[in-house]
Amino acid sequence: xxxxxxxxxxxxxxxxxxxxxxxxxxxxxxxxxxxxxxxxxxxxxxxxxxxxxxxxxxxxxxxxxxxxxxxxxxxxxxxxxxxxxxxxxxxxxxxxxxxxxxxxxxxxxxxxxxxxxxxxxxxxxxxxxxxxxxxxxxxxxxxxxxxxxxxxxxxxxxxxxxxxxxxxxxxxxxxxxxxxxxxxxxxxxxxxxxxxxxxxxxxxxxxxxxxxxxxxxxxxxxxxxxxxxxxxxxxxxxxxxxxxxxxxxxxxxxxxx
Length: 257
Prior knowledge:
Elements: E1 7-11, H1 16-27, E2 31-36, H2 39-51, E3 55-60, H3 66-80, E4 85-88, H4 104-131, E5 135-140, H5 153-168, H6 172-175, E6 178-185, H7 191-202, H8 216-228, E7 236-240, E8 243-247
Parallel strand pairs: 1-2, 1-4, 2-3, 4-5, 5-6, 6-7
Antiparallel strand pairs: 7-8
């Protein structure tokens, strides 16, 4: 997809990966709806984009609430007249003291934000995109959704759901002209990760920070690739400090599943 002239909605865009993706897509010429519950962070992202000559608007929304998810998508239509790209990026972890000691309400919230909101946003965006001739949806999953994640099993379960959900929608590329992919980062240097590390250390847990940590801009590069490359759909893109790897669950040509 040619990004210039398109409109993108990015959740969790007030910091970290979401902020980096919003800035990157705006730099490529997209108009961006910055979505977050953190108004200060959202305003900062919009400021970075507009001061660089880009177009952006902020919408405060809880991505787990249907009415608010609809409002963030409607903002793209009302402000920019179109919706071409949705990045379901908002996410949280259980945090220390972790599962199963943490309040069960916290486990539920992780599932609601990290998985159910992805399903909700995708489901609401699809009819809008299909009516306009197609679009691109990128979901932020995690390496924790591909491999065991002992530090946060609930987070890993939610992200595994995002991976399978994404793979299961590969057929949308032909049926709806909507490409759905997910990016699976390793540990990224974001405020959420830093807070999680501080909480863990406060509870006497050993640091799990790797020697080399991924920067949010590296994930933004990966998302940019998934948006631009029309041959990619229903795939996961692993992002490690050592590089990227496409995980394509589609059967090889001529085979049957």
